[in-house]
Structure formats: structure tokens, C-alpha cells
Amino acid sequence: MLLTIAADIPASELGYLLHKNPARFHSFDLSFGKAHVFYPKVGSIRSEAALLLDVDPVGLVRGRSHTAEAGLHQYVNDRPYIASSFLSVAMSQVFGTAMSGRSKERQELADQPIQFDALITALPCRGGSELLKRLFEPLGYESEAKGYHLDEHFPEWGTSPYYTVRLRNHVRLRDLLTHMYVLIPVLDAEKHYWVGEDEVEKLLRKGEGWLADHPERQTIVNRYLRYDRKLTRSALGRLVEGESNDPEAEDIDHTQEERSIEAPLKLWEQRIGSITSALRSREAQTVVDLGCGEGKLLSVLLHDRSFERIVGVDVSWRALEIASKRLHLDQLPIAQRSRIELLHGSLMYKDKRVSGFDAAVVAEVIEHLDRPRLAAFERVVFEHARPGMVLVTTPNAEYNPLFPFLPSGRFRHKDHRFEWTRSEFQRWAMENAERFGYKVRFLPIGTSDPIAGPPTQMGVFER
Amino acid sequence: MKLTLPELSLVVLIGPSGSGKSTFAKKHFLASEVLSSDFCRFLVSDDENSQAATSDAFDVLHYIAAKRLAAAKLTVVDATNVQKEARKPLVDLARQYHVLPVAIVLNLPERVCADQNRNRPDRNFGPHVVRNQSQELRRSLKGLDHEGFRHVHVLSSLDEIEAAVIERQPLWNNRRFDHGPFDIIGDVHGCFDELIELLQRLGYAITREADQYKVLPPSGRKALFVGDLVDRGPKVAKVLQLVMAMADSGVALCVPGNHDMKLVKKLRGSDVQMTHGLAETWAELERESPEFRKRTLAFLDGLVSHYVLDGGGLVVAHAGMKEEMQGRGSGKVREFALYGETTGETDEFGLPIRVNWAAEYRGRAMVVYGHTPVPEPEWLNRTVNIDTGCAFGGALTALRYPEKEFVSVPAKHTYYAPARPFIPEGTAPEPKLTAQQRQDELLDIDDVVGKRIIATRLHRTVTIREENATAALEVMSRFAANPKWLIYLPPTMSPSETSRRAGYLEYPEEAFAYFRHEGVATVVCEQKHMGSRAVIIVCRDEESARENFGVIGEGIGICYTRTGRRFFSDASLEQALLEKVQAAVTSSGLWEDLKTDWLCLDCELMPWSAKAQELLREQYAPTGAAARASFPYVVAALESAAHCVPEISGIAKHYRERQRLADRYVASYRRYCWPVNSIADLRLAPFHLLASAGRVYTDADHIWHMETLSKLVAADPGLLIATAFRRVDLADGASVADATNWWEELTGSGSEGMVVKPLHFVQPGRRDLVQPAVKCRGREYLRIIYGPEYTQEENLMRLRERGLGTKRSLAIREFALGIEALERFVRAEPLRRVHECVFGVLALESEAVDPRL
Fold first, then answer.
1. Distance CA B356, CA B253 (A)
2. pTM, two decimal places
3. Which residues 215-274 of A are in CB contact (within 8 Å) with B?
4. Domain housing A94
5. How many domains does chain A have?
């Protein structure tokens, strides 16, 4: 909430550079509250200016509708106290002229590098003080960061993301301001306003002369544009000819976490490959994808005319909305559109809409169910939906130690309630096949390790 | 002329154009009962005479007729209906809905019809039309019976039409007026001695005078036999004598069984197979007089397939009765009543495989039946089979209605060997779920999704919007515990009206004023604990968990959150907590006091940090940490600047105040946090004893809840915390002042605040139910909710504009649903009926409401 800038120049000179008279307390109305400028040090040798943000926490959320998801977070949060995109906005509005490098009275001083000391309070560095150094040091800064506990009474809660940051560099004022303007929200990795196409323009303008050569430019672009892949690609492409984001990032079917763990193996593609070839060899014409998520498998099935009726079911309404968009359901010709349907449903309740299919796919779903609730799932699928074929895939826990970024003992995804070894999965599958009159066989998915087996396993139930 | 119609029938008016059908219909039936083809033409084409629209018009007519018949509404079809092809779909429709088709023919001379048409300008079609219609009508007249019309009334002149009077006759099976109480008796099959013993145990006095049985029922009661009086057992004739005597004297009703009907055929002289005990019955009856056989024939032949009794709350039929057939009459209905429904296949013993209609049964009426012997009578979806196979050596069972008590007399002998053993060999090896519990293992999505309207005892009906049900489905499916445990979810709670007092957002006087305004004289103020809401179900042992909840292998109970999720991810910690609660219940003697082996408690579980860990780390602590990292620098900078610019000192002071508020905010949440390393660090404060076997404690006031629970708390003061409370007389200024001071003290020492409840758990108010509870939260506590600096006057001013309407309305609806769920559970209703309410609470919780309230 506070930014100070000090230099070994008289206060009057700093005042001219910033276009703010040191003898006064300046206040500015901004959309989210106020910004104040004042001078804690008014010396003839050294001076210091301060930009103080006065975010109005009540005003910030008034008039917005309450949503169940946002919860209390929008009312009690760190925004009023931290250095965030609010600070950047304040800088551009209050120090706009200085940032553009102009000074009515002292243009030569403005064009001249000066030794500046800046202090930013409560700067959230998501990624730690390491990232702070990686961002500022290539630009010539010395940095110093003081960290804080979340609450010193409860050290077990860990450290907070906030740092009191001191930066020192011999630069022009406009560079100092611009660097901070871009890098503060990058460190915070969150923005208070919607990131749109014009943000790309802004970033490119502010990054002129330093961003293209910055070793962390990928991080800076990603975070500044909040991981919006389309925007990120457009920005990077224009920054550096031929560079674009990792195409794997297209995969939004899984959360960041699981994706980054499994991504190098391209497991999703292999799963879909195994599933579709099993469906084809069965000559299934009607297929229901139970737990279809955002519709990755559906879109593959839709492109194969041999599947006459394709139904995706998911418990997440949001996932279905995304699936509907990804499959372009509203633009499909009638003949195609009539082949596919998305249903909001649950594997915990029997549902006559999903019975009578040639095949059902249950890919990477069971591990998201609490163990005691599997009993309901088993009856819903094998007893009531009762398709001719059921394909069940689930991670093979034995493979987990082979993932470089997966800490030992952890599951591949935060929402996984269990992960099974091959023998655990096979025991479960055979018991249920027996109980409900199916035959089951098992197929590996992904390249098998001689000891740990494949990364994912599939049970093929048929009757 | 009097025309009798069954009260539920499809009346087909038959007559040429101009015969006066519409006038006739209008005179004798409700406007809503009459479906006119002309009107349907008008509906689909804007023209009542459009012949081109005929096909569509009849589609509409048939569709509406089907809806009405499904809803058991008498329906009159006003169309010419002179052709057999036109009548056939109507007869089929009547059959499909098991109602009787009735024909009323307006058979007027052609000339009369033509005259009547002449007065109607829109009917200037030539005379040939009416002529053809009249001819077709006359050709049809003879065959109407054959087409399937059960009653045919022909009116052949204007005078007859004018004089006609319609009389609606109740169906024979309609005994809704008969409220019992009843003793419903299972398949007797000639087991006379057991029947006598059973009747005596039920309190019937039986004497025999001059060869006639005389039976005196216990006051007001009536016996009701589910049929199959004959075959297999040793004393068929005596059973018949007794039951006929009882029926004649109005002491008993009887529905027919398949064995009884087969005997009827034999008595009529038909050639029937003398199997399944008929040979022995016949041998016995041959020893009786011909008069007795004649009487028997008349009695059995006159039996009505099934009865609908007690205002529609009870249905009795030999082999059961589907909802869509109840109270209707058709051959199919009678067949179902006698034999049930079979798949057409037979099992390994050569017996037909039955369709389990009871598993699908959703009706409101209790259905009591027999036919298939079962080891024990078992409830399933409000149906119960009470044939416990007396002739096969089982027992003769009666169900007392409405008490729902079973009374059984064991068979004295095995009189007949069953084709299929109905009691499994050996003793039951493992604990067994009841039929209902097995049925409840799986719920149907149709019972929760879509727009739902739930009838509750407390609040008429509660409507659940489709989008809210959609949201709840995800939460329920992904996170909730086994639905068999979820017999209640707590309602949301509204704060008191906003205080105008300087520095406060909530203050007790508004809470008191609210209840006073609603006409409540006494309230109970309870200290509000700051932890997480927890619902606890605890059973005496795993056995009682199975018996009462149908849950196996999930321990002695559960502790779940307000969204139905297990409170603890660590199952052993949960069971350890439950064992401590269980031990406290045992040593406090509550099992015995409440005559129960399970309890459901509404509690607050502390510390807050145990459940809110993520919230604390992601939201509350960071907010405090950020403020405390910034303010010292801000204040120092301002103070330094104030040396040169004096006006800044006022601003510095303002920021010092803000710094102080941030510190108080941190102090505020810290009070509710402590590390949990073991169960010894947990505290549980029960404040409602919601339910136990057969009871929901909404009839007990909050003082009772507090006092009863204090006994429990005393048994384990380490874990359990008593809730401090005050009884406040709202008319007594001193009492109110005392409670206000108490609140000041509580909140001054860091407590969250208090909850004010009307003395009675359920309290009707001026228009609606009174809020079951209103919270009044402390000034410091509210920093966690409204932010560290909410007490700054410029913030308070704006925060005071908060509306409580939606929150309060939700609180009432959720309260009504939660209590409804409990009441349905203790009435042992099918799980879907309980789950519907619990799901409803969760759905309502997805409504957009200011989360700070």
C-alpha cells in the first residue's frame, strides 16, 4: 500500500521529476479509492517521496451481486494493504508524466540515470523472493526482501507471500517507475481488472527496450496476462519472432496440477486412443461418457461417424458449459447435433437417461469418489445403466514414484480420494464383473515401466 | 330417467350433429369435465368446424383425456362418436387408465337433429351429413356392449333427454369414508386355530351360538382379511364360517385371494386343477351342506378386488396394488389384485417370477397385502406384505392400523409343504439389511433434480428451483457422506436487524424487538460458539447403526458439516470423537431416558481453525499479515512527513487508528484458533438434541434442550462444552437489560456473540413461522466478517444498508425442510423422502445471499 522513492537529490528536484510539490499533501480520487503523495524526507541533499494507496474495501464490492463461490473472500482480503495492480494503476495515474519520461522543469534530470532507492511494502511475491531477484536483477537492481509469517502466533501456518522490498538501481526515473509498474502485478500474479486484448498492447508499450531481452520474459508475459493462452501467445509471438507458448497448455481438461505432472507423457491422448480403439473393436454405436468433463473424448467420438449416439454426462455444470463451447454444439449441423447430447448427472444416483447404451466410458473418474461411495457408483453403472461394455480407467499408483514433480506419498490430483495399484484395481474390477455378470480384461495405457507398470490402467468390462 | 355412472368413468356421448350433445353435457357435467371435439378444432385451427383440423383436434382431445384419467377425473367426450373407429381409441384409453367406459347415446330422429342444426348458421352442411351419421349410429347401437362399454344408456326422444338425471355411483372399492381402525390379517389358508388365537390376541371376543360364530371387536375396530382364506390348512370350512359371520355382522371386510377365486370356479362347477390344496378344501366342503357351499360361493364371488380406505391413506389387496390402479376398476386391476404382476418367466421351482412392484412404489397410500409368503413382514416404500406363511409352518400375522404394529401367532404345525422354501435354510449368517434399507442403497436422480415442490409440516410447501438443485447435485455427489446418514442439514441463520448505535452493526435490542414484534413473550439467549457447525449422529453400537440407518462398516455414527460432508478426513479421529460422545451418552443415562439407541445432535465444533484451516491460511491470516506488514512503514512515513507539512499529522493519526484496528482484527481471529494435534484439543458444544428413536424434539422448548444436553456435557467435560444461556422475559425490562449486559460481557471477552431463540422450538408468528433463531454478533467478532476497519463510521454508515429479507426467508424454508427430513426419518419413510428434504436444504444454500449475514 506504500511505495517510497528516495534519491540523493534535493526535494525540490524530486518534486519537479514527479510533478508533485514536496510542500503539500496531494490526494487523488481513483476508481478504487484514493492515492496520496507526500514527502517523508524533504532535504537539500537527500529526499524521499511516498505514494500511499487508500483502497476503499467497502466501496470496492458494493453493488456487486453476491455469488456463492466468491464467498466472504471479496469482503475480507489483503487488497487494501498490499502492493498490487491497484498500485500500478495509481502510479500510472499519479506519476503518468514522470513515467512517460517528461519533466516540464527538469528534462535533463529526467533523462539522466540517478541512484534510486525504492521501498514497496507488502508486495506479494508468489514464487518467493527468488522470483523477485530473477525479475529485477537482470535489469540491474540490487534487491532486498524482508519476509513475514502468516501469523507469528501460528508458525505452523507457514510464511506469508508478502515482502517488504527494497530496490536500488542507477536508472532513469521513468525506467524505475515502468519496471515497478509491470513487475508488481507480475509478482502478485493477480489483477483486479479483467485482462483483455488491450493489455497486450499496454505490456508491449511498457516493456519496450527491456522486456524482449529479459530472461524471464515468458513468466512475465504469462503472469501479466494471467495465463490467458490466446493473449499470451499473441504477446510472445510479437515480442520474439517464432516463439509461442507450449501447445500442451491447450489442455484444459485437467487442472494445472495433474496436467503438469502427466503432461510430458501425453497421457490424455493415449487414454483417448485406447478408449476409442476398444469402442471400435466392440463396434459400439451408442456411447455414454460418464464424467465427460470438458468433452475431450466426446470431440474425438463426434468425428467418427460410426458412433451414432454420443452422450456426455458430468456432475459439474461448469464443465458441461465448457464442453458445449469446445464442441461448438450451437454451430453443428442438425445431422451432427442430433448425434450428441450433454447431460447434467451424477454417478451417485441411478439415472434412466444413461441406460441402454452399447458402451460406457468412465475415464479417470472413480478415483474422485470417496471409497464408501463406490458402492453406489458400481450399482449405478453395472446394474442400472448396464451397457454392453464399460471402460474404466484410473491411475496406476505404482507408477507415481516415476513422476519427477510428484512428491512421494501424494496423489496426482488434489481431488483424488485414492489411487490404486494394479492389483487393487484388478481385484475391485473382478469382484464387480463377477457380481454383475461381466467379463473383464485389463489393458495398460502409456508406456509401461518394467516394474511399476503403465502410468494408467484400463479395465474393459463386457457382457 | 336416472342414468347411473361410476364416479370414475370415461363418458362417451354418441349422437349425430344436432342431437344436443353439448347442451346435454353442459347441463349435467362440470365445464372442465367435458372435452368437446369442436372446441379442440377451435384450439388448433381457430375454427370449430374445420374438418381439416379433425386429426389434430382429436390428438389434443385424447391427450387431455389421458391426463384427466391419469388424475382420476371423470371425463366426458363430446363428439359425434357415431363410428366404431372413433369410439375405439376412447375405449382403449379407458382401459389403459383402468376406468369404466360409459356410452350415453342421444338417438333422436334425423329430422329433429336437422331442425336443431338449422338454427345454427355455422352448420349449414347438407342434410346428407346428419342422415349418414344417424345411419351409422343406428348400426352401432347393438354392438356397444361388445365394444367394451360397461354401461350403455340410450335416450331416444327430446323428452327422455330432458328428463334424464345423472347419478354418480361410488366404486365398490371406494371405502375412503371408512377410517377403521383396522386389524389387517394375512393369508389364513384354513389355519383356523391360529386365526382364533390371533383374533383373541387382538382383543376380539369370539363365541359360538346356535352353530353361528359371534364376534365382538375391540371398540371401534374392524378386521380386514387380505384374502386366501382357503386351501392348504386343515380347517377351511371353519375359517369360512367365521369370516362370513364376521363380514355379515360388519365386523370384517375381506378382499379375495387367488385361491378363493379358484374355489369360486370349482363351486360354480368349472373344471379346475385340484392342486395347491384345492383337493383338500373340496373334500372338506363336500362334507358341508349344499347351503353352506352356496353361501360360500355367494360370499367369495361378491368380494371386491381391493379396497381404498381411510381417506385414501390405506389400500388393501391380496397381491398388492400399484398406485396407478388404486381405486380403479378393470379386469387388469382385478388380475393385479389377485396375482400381482409376473415377468412371464418361472424360477427354478417352477413358480412364476414376480415383478417387484413394491420396489417402484411411490404412492401416498399405505398398501397392505399378502399372497407371497415371507419370513417377516417388511416395510418397503409404504407397502408391507403380511403373509408370513402360516400354512407352511410360519405364522399368521396381523397389522394393526394406523398403529403400524405387527401381531403374530406362530403356526402350530406345518400343514403344507411349500414348493419353494420361504424361510432360508439355517440361520441368517451375517447382519442383514431390511428390504427398505436395501432399496435405499441407491437413490434415483429423478427424486432430486429439476424444479421440486416439497410439502413440509411446518411451512406448507417449499419450492426448490431447478438451478439450485443443479448446484446441489454437484456438491452432494462429490463431497457428501453416505446419504443414509444425512437425515438433517441445519438451516442458515439470520442476524438481528441492523443496529444504528454508534460503532455497532448488531446489538441485542434489535433481536429482542424482532421477537417482541412477532408476539413472542419469552426468548432463550444462548452463547454463540465460534467453531464450525457439526451434526453428530451417534449410535449405541454398530448393530444399532445398521438397524436404524442401514449403514454397515462405517462405525457407530458420523460427524458431518452443514453441507453434508464428513467433518474429518481422518476416520479414526472421527470415530474416537464419536466414541467419546457415545460414552457420555451412556454414562449420562440418555439411552434409557430417551428410550433410544441413537441420537442426532446439532453442535458447534471448536476450534474454528480445525475446519477453517484453508480459509485462515488463504484469507484471514494473509489479510492481517499484509496489514501488519504495511502499516508500520505507512505510519512512520506519515509521521516523518508531518514535520514539514503539519496537516499530515491528522492523516498520520487516522492511519495509526487503522493500524490499531488491523491489530484487533488479528487478535479477533486468533481467539478461535489453536492447534489440533489430537482429540484432546477438540471441543464440542451440543445445543440441540434433534432426534432419537421415533422422536424429533421440536415439541420440547430450548430450556429442555439446554438442560438435557447439560447432563450429557457433565459426563465428559473435557470434550464437551455446556452452552451458557439466559431465559429472557421480553416484557420485563430488567430481564432484557440483564441479557444485554450479558451480551456485552460475552462479546467484550472475545465471544462471538449470542443466538436468540423463541422459547419454543417451533413458534408461529404474525404471518409466518418466527425465525427459529436470530444471531447477534459481537463487535470484535464482526471484524472477521466485515473486515478489520468496518467499525470506522464512514464504513459502518454504508454497511448498515443491508437487507435481511432473503436471508430470513431462506432460514424459514431451510428450517422447515430440515425438520421435515428428521420427521420423515423417524417415521421410517423411504430414504428418498428424507433425502429430498436434505437435498433441498443444500439447494437453497446455493441461493445468492450476502455471505456476511
1. 26
2. 0.85
3. none
4. 2-62+71-193
5. 2
